Amino acid sequence: MLRYLLPVIFVCTAASCVRVKPYQRATHASQAMQDQSAEEAKLDNHVHEYREGAIGGSGVGGGGCGCN
Asked: Model-level pTM greater than 0.70?
């Protein structure tokens, strides 16, 4: 059984590896290929902040002394 299963697993994993050529990178970096829109990212960040209990830390740095 392993003798037949191992080549199938190898072919499936080898077929999924693809090299992206430099001229194709612009297509993959387009907005349509991105995971989320700005509104979805903001909502996900909001949910994550309340779930973790940690709000903030993603804005401008500063220690409160006014030196940053």
From this structure: no
